[in-house]
Design goal:
Protein name: N-acetyltransferase domain-containing protein
Strand content: 35-45%
Organism: Microvirga flocculans
CATH superfamily: Gcn5-related N-acetyltransferase (GNAT)
Number of helices: 2
Mean pLDDT: 95
Distance between the termini: 22 Å
Strand order of the largest sheet: 1-2-3-4-5
CATH topology: Aminopeptidase
CATH architecture: 3-Layer(aba) Sandwich
Radius of gyration: 12 Å
Structural class: alpha+beta
Pfam families: Acetyltransf_CG
Number of strands: 5
Helix content: 25-40%
């Protein structure tokens, strides 16, 4: 899934586009941590799994960069707790 997620560095957010709509995660790279401040999906994408696919891509990017994820966003935090395969990334 990470191949679908792109880093929009100018806006400090990871983005996933589906059917012309965007799901995004606002982030900050802080030392070895990837701080996820907010995750949001456009209304047409809600309930489609797009935000979950976005978070999976974010987690894969964090892993490939050797970073851990500090979720400040409730959605990101609950997603990481539910997906134990990425538990090692949680700060």
């Amino acid at each position: 899934m990470s191949s679908e997620v792109r880093d929009n560095a100018d806006r400090h957010r990871f983005e996933l586009e589906r059917n012309g709509e965007i799901a995004f995660a606002i982030y900050e790279r802080r030392g070895d941590d990837l701080v996820i401040r907010h995750v949001e999906a456009a209304i047409p994408l809600r309930g489609t799994g797009a935000a979950s696919d976005l978070m999976r891509g974010v987690a894969e990017i964090a892993r490939s960069e050797g970073r851990r994820i500090m979720p400040l966003c409730g959605y990101a935090s609950s997603w990481l707790r539910r997906h134990k395969e990425y538990g090692d990334l949680l700060t």
